[in-house]
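Researcher: Let's do a round of design. I'm pasting the structure tokens now; please hold your answer until I've finished.
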């Protein structure tokens, strides 16, 4: 892992992989999903996917080591970093904007093989990584990352993210009860209800969802899969190409208005004709963002975010801090900070109770003499570099400030955070919420089967013990069916698996597809 190149503000989100704690069942899940997906995706995935998978060096026998993935992916300009499940959207995008694929290192449970509600190593490694080896698509994902890292959130979205992360943890926790899941789902709904508007961050995330995560490409009537969420899902990679899923030609407005469901299979998807179209979509999306539009409208986004932001002036200087208040009139707009840093010609100047009065370029605005208690005209104030200990009268408010700048300026760019290393806000190290991986009753047998496969030894002698002591372990039975030599034992396993198919719809589908794979 290229830890030396990880920006310091992203380092707190990195987590160890704990590779040696993966259980034999975990490795069996990876093997089953990867083999089944390769079988399913042949002729259905973007042509580069299989080639990309080979270039990443990943194989079905063992879960990938995130650190070692970098060795293969660096040829395409990428590295990999291990993270603990869901991370904040801005960090997720920032990693990718810097050419780093964040890999959630948990792995779905056997009962969630068809569809996992949480990002896991199957989704990140088998879904995202292969397509990143394609130069055109790689550049698009990096650009997505750069846009997402500079997209404003609303302050309520932070609470909504925390609730959603908790839900994914609860759903993947083997010890969670139905009551635990219901409580976590309720918390998500309540947090989402508090989110108002449609922030830039939500817009970028939604387009990312309908393209990089769940995108189809090519002809509308016969599309192919390129989205990682589809490529990595045993259930959805098959379901998405059926008539049960509505296919729309990609349109930016339509995609923005179509809400995604992060916990269930998608009912509708969007098809782009080619990656060049997606690049044009990003051009249009970027043109709508505060970082490109600037102006007072963009400052309002900074205020709504409740977080550190940068306002860039026409002369290239910047004002960095958390915007606390904005007072608007027809002729003036006053922006206030409790703490603000003026960045000019490489110099940083700290200010408290600071204001920036933007004057709309009209004669009446410049000649006003009633904004300041001492009768100073706005025109005179504009000629001063900085006013100290000043009181502004605006829109019925009396606003005392320690310092004030008065400018006629279009404010060409506004964006969250800062590009100044010294001013970057470093989050606390990630709190890793994880359960100790405890071997189940099936794990020792999974391990024996794995070792015997590697040594090319016969497993036939183990079948009676497996049938007796592991009667419900359908995935273990599938592993044995692949290796058993005796026809009588093979038929016995098939009969047991046919019986297990009747115990749930998901088992019925998975075992049936495993039969197709092994034929």
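Researcher: That's everything. Go ahead.
Model: Designed sequence:
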């Amino acid at each position: 892992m290229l830890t030396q190149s990880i920006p310091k503000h992203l380092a707190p989100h990195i987590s160890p992989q704990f590779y040696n704690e993966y259980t034999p069942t975990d490795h069996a899940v990876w093997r089953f999903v990867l083999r089944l997906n390769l079988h399913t995706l042949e002729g259905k995935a973007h042509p580069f996917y299989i080639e990309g998978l080979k270039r990443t060096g990943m194989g079905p026998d063992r879960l990938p080591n995130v650190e070692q993935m970098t060795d293969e992916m660096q040829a395409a300009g990428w590295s990999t970093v291990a993270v603990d499940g869901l991370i904040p959207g801005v960090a997720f995008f920032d990693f990718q904007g810097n050419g780093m694929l964040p890999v959630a290192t948990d792995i779905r449970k056997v009962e969630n093989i068809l569809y996992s509600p949480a990002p896991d190593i199957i989704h990140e490694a088998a879904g995202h990584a292969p397509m990143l080896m394609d130069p055109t698509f790689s550049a698009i994902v990096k650009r997505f990352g750069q846009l997402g890292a500079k997209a404003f959130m609303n302050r309520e979205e932070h609470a909504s993210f925390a609730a959603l992360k908790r839900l994914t943890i609860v759903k993947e926790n083997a010890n969670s009860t139905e009551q635990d899941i219901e409580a976590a789902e309720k918390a998500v709904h309540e947090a989402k209800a508090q989110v108002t508007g449609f922030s830039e961050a939500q817009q970028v995330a939604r387009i990312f969802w309908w393209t990089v995560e769940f995108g189809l490409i090519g002809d509308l009537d016969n599309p192919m899969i390129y989205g990682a969420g589809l490529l990595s899902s045993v259930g959805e990679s098959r379901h998405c190409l059926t008539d049960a899923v509505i296919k729309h030609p990609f349109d930016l407005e339509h995609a923005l208005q179509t809400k995604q469901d992060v916990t269930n299979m998608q009912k509708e998807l969007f098809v782009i004709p080619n990656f060049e179209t997606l690049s044009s979509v990003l051009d249009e999306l970027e043109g709508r963002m505060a970082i490109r539009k600037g102006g007072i409208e963009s400052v309002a986004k900074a205020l709504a975010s409740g977080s550190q932001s940068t306002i860039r002036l026409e002369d290239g200087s910047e004002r960095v801090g958390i915007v606390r208040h904005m007072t608007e009139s027809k002729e003036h707009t006053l922006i206030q900070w409790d703490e603000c840093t003026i960045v000019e010609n490489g110099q940083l100047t700290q200010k408290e109770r600071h204001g920036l009065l933007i004057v709309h370029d009209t004669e009446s605005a410049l000649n006003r003499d009633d904004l300041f208690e001492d009768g100073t005209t706005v025109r005179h104030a504009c000629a001063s570099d900085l006013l100290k200990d000043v009181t502004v009268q605006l829109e019925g408010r009396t606003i005392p400030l320690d310092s004030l700048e008065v400018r006629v300026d279009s404010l060409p760019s506004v964006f969250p955070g800062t590009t100044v290393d010294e001013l970057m806000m470093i989050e606390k190290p990630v709190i890793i919420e994880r359960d100790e991986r405890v071997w189940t009753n099936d794990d020792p047998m999974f391990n024996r089967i794995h070792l015997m496969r590697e040594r090319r030894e016969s497993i036939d002698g183990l079948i009676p013990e497996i049938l007796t002591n592991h009667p419900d372990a359908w995935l273990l039975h599938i592993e044995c069916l692949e290796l058993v030599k005796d026809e009588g034992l093979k038929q016995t396993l098939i009969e047991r698996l046919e019986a297990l198919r009747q115990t749930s719809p998901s088992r019925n589908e998975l075992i049936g597809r495993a039969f197709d794979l092994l034929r």
